[in-house]
Every structure is written in structure tokens, then in C-alpha cells.
Protein: Stage II sporulation protein E
Amino acid sequence: MQKKQVLKRVKLAGSDTMSKVGNSMKNVVVENRLVQTVVAKKWTILLLFMAFLLGRAMILDQLAPFGVAFFAVMYFLRRELLFWTGVFLAAGSLFSFEPMHTGYLLAEMLVFLLLQKGVERFQRSDISYAPAMVFTTVFFVQLFSHLVTTQFSWYTLMMTGVEAVLSLILTHIFLQAVPVFTLTRKNYSLKNEEVICLIILLASVMTGTVGWTVGSLTIEHVLSRYLILLFALVGGAPLGASVGVITGLILSLANSSAIYQMSLLAFAGMLAGLLKEGNRMAVAFGMLLGSSILSVYLGNQADIMSSTWESVAAVALFLLTPGAVIQTLAKYVPGTQENLKSQHDYARRVRDVTAQRVEQFSEVFRQLSRSFKQITVDTEPLRKDEEVGHFMNAVAEKSCATCWKRTQCWDERFYQTYKYMTDMMTEVELRDTITRKDILPEWKRLCVKPDQVLDIMVQQYHIYKNDQHWKKQIWDSRQLVAEQLSGVSQVMEDLAKEIKREGQELFMQEEQIRSALEELGLSIHSIDIISLDEGNVEIEIIHQYTRGFDECRKIIAPLLSEILGEHIAVKNELALERKEGYSTVLFGSAKAYEVETGIAGAAKGGDLLSGDSFSTIELGNGKFAVALSDGMGNGERARAESSAALSILQQLLQSGMDEKLAIKSVNSVLMLRSSDEIFATVDVALIDLYNANTTFMKIGSTPSFIKRGHEVFPVTANNLPVGILHEIDVDLVTVPLKHGDILIMMTDGIYDAPGHAVNKELWMKRMITEIDSDHPQDFADVLLERVVRYHHGDIYDDMTVVVARIDKFQPEWATFRTPGIDRIERPRTVS
Structure:
């Protein structure tokens, strides 16, 4: 009773906790929606205010290409605001200097809507058609108005074409600039062209303030200088000067008397951007200084004072601007620290999400592996008794169901009958053929039809053995699937750990390397440090190369070796197509050891196709694999089996799978490839290039030999070839190699050459000792030649020998130091 009460309290507490968590999640969702609603309202107000000013904006008091272009863009990007956009555009046009401007704008918006609806009816609507539709709308509305008012002339036709072309260009520009205010993606990064389009949009909006004054201050001048201050602080001199040129040009088009503003704003923006490192006050001082200097040359005393006060008002607005606004603007401008940080944060979030997904998949595969193993473990103890019981029931049902002594045998003497049946089943199981003479005398006296029971028992036993065979197949398959799922889970877990590794900003180390290389007179375009982990260094350098000099291996790699304190080698070199004379070079850690290989082989009877396959490849994880496989028989079929075994094994090892599991997977694949009896030997040596420790996996293969000076050591194992048994035992043999060691691996065609009457191991050791060559290829050729000569030129089987020599890595060029350059401090990797 007490136990039930405790469980009830636990359940209630759990339900309360879950309800609290659910309520808190709902509150978070509601708060997020409220925040999004507030932000959306702010952008809506800003867009409608921009529509009001663009409706009022004009060029030379005659052309008004802004309104309909903005209306068309809003139709595609914010259609829910289309009605209010049209209202605010019309309201702004009422305050323009042209009395007929409102009628023209309303007509243009109406014609654009009619054209768009017609296009949509034919299912041809697309945002890319917007500029052409705006051009058509403006041209024909203006042309029709001139024809109606009988003011048509070549001049009016030309101005109509100019206004239509300007509308088309502005539509293109607004399509790239307006998404800044409509899209809410946090990782939205602008291109340089999109930044220019944004500046043109803001300058066009400021054109709507032409004619507005506060005392002696002109609003468009104050806003243009305020805009320059913002972009100069964010993007420096290039962006500040660009904003000055664009805003000055557009304002001068709206008011021809303000043509001097273009040069004044451009110079002020450049000077303000040059002082961006001093933060706001320095940028403000630069703008004041630049505008004041040009005002002295371009105007009288009254203009100078008016320009100065306008600059002061812009500076006041600039100093009152919240820092969050400037940081938000900086995130959109490419090349700024805020933009780089935003992109880095986004990449880190994507990386974390990806790592989490990979970990989840890893856990799924691990759970599946556990479930398969649990099924096989749980059913194994009960299976034997159940199957024996089913066997006895089947025999009794077929032989005793219609017998008149059934009641006496199974009801009155059940245990005795069952024991005799079990003993008889044992006899059937032990003997290949059983006759009436082999039946127990007690069973003959008890049973009235022993021959019939014997025949049924033999028949059922064959069925039972067949069932046993397939159940064993299923059980082995489950075990294999469980192990493979476990291996995949481990690979994915390792991948998740690699993804989680924190990327680091290595600007100081990059500048240190750049300064050291430039002091040597090299022209370095860019340096990108990918990793500085010891033993896994990756540095990408783009430099201007000189043909034939090979500065990468002779100068840069030795210098990096001295700076980093480990041997650095050239991993890859690629000439850039677009930049003549530049090359991208990837430098990486050189391994402590290097492997040189040689292969020699011959097919049976001198044929072209051998049944042996070999592979020598660097796996990419600091290990070098030397593999050899001998397929059953000779010719194309044997070649297919051996090459399949090596190819699958190579892919599995490169993916990071455990060696034993990789061999078992190859074994299962070879068994499933064909129902015929096929197999292949596998002989693999995994050489660690950092410490020369070598792991041998020998499945049915001949011994390998290690030659160290004048001594020869055999490496053996006693495993059957893959593809014969469902379950194989993989024995791994690890041997530490040394500098100068020669590893010899061979197939049975060479090892069995002396015949059965000779001690093959001693014979092969003597042959290897007598070869004086240290070069792997020469060593392999000499060994193969001596074996062929031993048989007087006859080749009785496929012969293949692979020789690998392990040497300490010796850089081609010695390291050297540059005065004043210290070793790089490696950052700690955060996992």
C-alpha cells in the first residue's frame, strides 16, 4: 500500500513538472511572437514612411520615377502592405512641386496592377518581369498624357523615355535593397552591390525631403551627412566616399543648385572613414573638417555658416544614435568585424546543430545494435529446448496419431516412451545412415511399427537440420548487423567530435607568418590557417610564384618548419586561373616516417590477368596501408574476388571503421555476393607514420617477413580466408618497425615455391637474406625473378610480392631562422 502511494506521488510530481515545462515553453513561444510582431510593426512604419517620401521625390521638378518603382517592388515583397503603400505614395505626391504628379502616379499604379493581373492570368507572373512592366507602364502613361494634352514633341518623347528608363533601373535597385527591410534572417549578409543599392534607396528617400527646412538648416543636407557618418564609421573610407558620391549625385539631380554637394560629401565621407579607428568622435571630426574645407572654396560666408550648422546637426544626430543601430548596420556590411562575427556565430550554430544531429543518428544506430544483440542473446538459451520439443511432437504426430497403442505409449508410459524416442533421435543424429538393426531392442518390443517411426524420424531430422542451418544463418546475420551498426555508430560519433571542434581566429599567427615571408622578399597575397594542431597543421597560402624557383619547398616550407617547431611539407599546389602568376599552396604536417613501396607479380602460366590484387594507400588518419589479396583459383573470377575484398576493406578503413569490424564486414559481403564456394585471403599491414608501429591483419594469408639489417623476422597468423565461415576470428599482430626496415608481403604462389619437402619459412628467409638491394622495387623484382628461376621459368600459380621500406622523414631543405621572428604560440583546441 505504501509502495503504491509513493508511486502515485512520483507520477503526480512528474506530471506537475511536465505541465510546468509545457507552460514555460508556451510562454517563451508567446514572448517570441510578441517580439516578432513589434519588430514587424516597426519595419512596416518605416516602409510606409519611405513610401511617403518617395511619392514626393522628383528629379529636376519634372521626372518622378521613384513612386511606381517602389510600388511594384512592394507588390512582390510585401503584398499585404500594397494598399497602404499606394495611399502613402499618393499622399506624398500631393506635397510635390508638380500639380499633375498625383494623377500620373495613380494612373501608373493602376496600369501596373492591370498588367500584373493580366500576366498572372496566363500564369507568367515572376518578380524578374517587374522592371520591364514598370518601364512599359511609365512610358505609355506619360506618352498618353502628352498626346491628350497636345504637348507631344521630340523633347517630351525623349523625357518620357528617360523617365521610363530611370523607373526600370530603380526597380532593379529597389529589388535588391528593399529585402533588407522585409527579410528577418539573422544571417543575412549583403554583397557590395547590394550595399550600393541600399545607399541609392536611402538617397532616393532623402530626395523626398528636398525643400524642407528647419530655420536655416536644410533637412536633406543634414540627413545626407548623417548617412555618411553612419557608413563611414561602419565601412571606413571607401564606403564613406561611396555614400558621399551617391547621395550627392542624387540630391544634385533633385536640386540642380546643389551640384557642389557631390564633391563636398564625397571628400567629407572619405576623411570621416579614414578616422574610423578613433570611433564616433574621430569620425565626426573628420566629417566636420572635410565639409568645412570644401565649403570655404565653394560658397560665401552665409553658405559656410549654414553648411557648418548642418554638419553640427548631423553630428548631434550621429552621437545620439544608439550603438545597437550601428552594430546592426555593421552586420550587413561585408568585411566588418561585426559581419565576420555574425557569420562565425551562424556557422557555429549550424555546426552545433549538425553535430547534434550526427550524435542523434549515432545514438539511433547504437540502440539498434543493442536491440539486435539483445534479441540474439535472449533467444539463444531457449531455442535448443524448443526445437527439440517441436521435433519430437512432429515425429509423434505423424507416426503415433493413428496407432492403436497411442494411449498406452503416451498416456500410461509417457516418460519411458519419450526417453526411447530421445535415444533413437540421438542415434539418428550420430549416424549418417541408420537401419532396423541399429534400433534399440527395447524400442522394438515396445513399438508396433518401429520401421515407420524410424523413417519419419530420419525425414524429420533432415528437415530439422535444414531449419537449424537457416536459423544459424539468421542468427549470424543479426550478429553481423549488430556489429556493423555499432561500427557505424562509432564512426558517426567520431565525426560529431570533429564537427564540434571550435574554430579559432588565428589573425596574430597569420600576420606573424606573413611578416616573416615578406621579409624574405616573397609576394604573399593571403594566408589562411586552417589548423595549428601538432601533427595536423594545415596552412593555405596564395603567393606570386616564379616559374622554376620553387619557393614553396625551398623557402616557405623550411621557414614554417622553424616557426612551428615541426616538419612542414607541401601537400598540394594549384595555379590560379583568374590571377596570372599566383598559386594556391597547401602546407601540412609531414609525418615522422615515410613509406616507399615496390610491387612485382606474374600470372599463372604467363597469362595477362592474375588472381592476386594489391593496394598501397595513405588512409588520411596518419596511417599507411599495404594490402594484398589472393582470390580462389586463377584468372578473372579470382581477380574479381580479391579486388572486391581489397576495395571494400580500403573504403571501410578510410571511413574510420575498426579494423576487426572491417574484416568481418568484408567476409559477410563476400559470402553474400554468390552462393558458390568462393573465398579470398587478405593480408594487410597498417603502418603508423608517426611512430612506425605496424598492425598486421592476416586472414588466410601466407607469413610476411621483416628484414632488419641481416636479420629476418616472420609475421604469421592462423586464420581462415574470408568468405568461408560466417563467423571468423580476427587476430591483430602489432610489431614496432624501425628506420630502414623492409617489409615483404607475398601470396602463396611465391611462398609455396620450394614445394612440400622443404621448410618454406627457412627457405624464404634465406632467399630474403641473400638479396642485397635496399630499394623496394628492385627487391621485389629480384625476389620474383629468383622464385621463377627456381622453377626453371615455369609459373605454377599467381605470384605477387609487395615490398615496403620504412624510413625517417628527411625534409628536402633544411630549416632556417629569420632574425626577429619567434616561434608561433599554438592556441589550445576547445572541444
